[in-house]
Amino acid sequence: MTQYETVIGLEVHAELKTRSKIFCHSTTEFGGEPNTHVCPVCLGLPGVLPVVNKTVVEYAIRAALALNCRIANFSKFDRKNYYYPDMPKNYQISQYDLPIAEHGHLNIEINGETRKIGITRLHMEEDTGKLVHQGNIITTPFSLVDYNRAGVPLIEIVSEPDMRSPEEAYEYLNKLKAIILYTGVSDCKMEEGSLRCDANVSVRPAGSTGFGTKTEIKNMNSFKALQKALTYEVERQIEVLEEGGRIVQETRTWDEGKGITLSMRSKEYAHDYRYLPDPDLVPMVIDREWVEEIKRSLPELPDERQERYVREYGLPAYDAMVLTNTRELADYFEDCVRAYPNPKTVSNWVMGDLSRLLNAGGVDINNCPIKPGQLSELLQLIEKGTISGKIAKAVFEEMFATGKAAEAIVKEKGLVQISDEGAITAIVEEVIANNPKSVEDFRAGKDRALGFLVGQVMKASKGKANPELVNRLLKERL
């Protein structure tokens, strides 16, 4: 493996979150009965004309600016001619030589090093329909066509071949998804096909500057699956070359069950698509003031927010990176900090217990049953000494399960921490009297004996004794 270098470039398709399709008024709503979200335009019927959805252009510019792209002054749509059963017009409206944006980049972190990944272009196009395959080898196989998705607006983001490992590709996709989500132009729901990826991969001798023959892995809708597919394909290509073979430029698919890539067809070139300017859509002159207006409306993006968390909140870089991974999680964190201004404590709870419960329950942060104000109230109860940190974790679990406030749960279950020195002293003296062997061990220098005695006091108090008082009073008595 060290004798070869991997070269990876990614083409990412993101469905835009507009209410209507790119060239007609049909809804973009996901699902629905087959062929109900259609009209004569997206069905490609004779005599109809497409009209550009202005919001699609705005969203494309918005995403492109967030990815540091240059917005074109002049852009046009083209017809990409090829036959597929799910393409009702037998061509796809896309952009070829004059896309809406070019020459962008984003930064990723790999092993503590920042890597700049170039973005060649971002262009707009329409999505295709969907084939539903029926039958099997015993019955006659056939396919049904659902055109609901035909005409849903897409942006395609094409990277430079700057990634040198499947791990870098994985990080690039995570960062790209986070940026797109921050802009609000797509929901990036991979399970609904809102975010899909094609990967171009090749290998070359280490130290070489030329490119090897590439293969394309098509229609990946899982970041983990893409990483595994790239790892396999790199190993496959190296094995072919080591055996004296030749890499064929082709499109391949990933078989998740077998853990291998399989050949689909020879790779198409641009001239195979016979691009031509779409005669039904006029070219677009992009107003620069409109671009500036869109730029001013962009939210604080992940990198900027991460830097601010380190600078203003004093958080470690890792905490800042995790908390800013999604806009919603970052907003939740900041709402908590406003109510309880101790950023590191809030960060520990959000990244730890809250994330654990969200992941275990498959719950999105937007539907989190514990609101920022409720988490802040729990942290205030710990700070006041009303409950211990250990009790707080049990209360937190109950809050997540029921949505109740921390104070209400504490009162209902009688969980108020015992901070009365006299009451704790009585328990401490009883524990010391009942555990002479542990007392002897502690006095003989065995520090672990203290932990045992603390545990016995906490057990006797049903976890309600103030741990700091317990430790101090035990040490004094011992």
Could you tell me the mean pLDDT? 90
How many β-strand stretches? 16
Strand order of the largest sheet: 2-6-7-10-1-11-12-13-14
Radius of gyration: 30 Å
Structure class: alpha+beta
The level of helicity is 40-55%
How many discrete domains?
3
Which regions are unreliable across 5 or more consecutive residues at pLDDT < 50?
A: none
- Report the span from N to C terminus: 62 Å
What would you say this structure looks like, in words?
The protein has 478 residues and is of the alpha+beta class. The chain folds into three domains: 4-292, no CATH class; 300-413, no CATH class; 421-477, Arc Repressor Mutant, subunit A, CATH 1.10.10.410. Helices cover 40% and strands 21% of the residues. The chain is built from 15 helices and 16 strands. The chain has helices spanning 54-66, 166-183, 223-242, 288-296, 302-313, 317-323, 327-339, 343-361, 372-384, 389-402, 406-413, 421-434, 436-443, 448-460, 467-477, and strands at 4-15, 70-71, 74-75, 78-81, 91-94, 101-110, 113-126, 130-134, 142-146, 153-159, 195-205, 215-220, 250-255, 260-266, 276-277, 284-285. The chain has a nine-stranded mixed beta sheet with strand order 2-6-7-10-1-11-12-13-14. The protein has a three-stranded antiparallel beta sheet with strand order 5-4-15, with no helix packed on it. Strands 3-16 form a two-stranded antiparallel sheet. The radius of gyration is 30 Å and the shape is elongated. The model has no long low-confidence stretch (mean pLDDT 90).
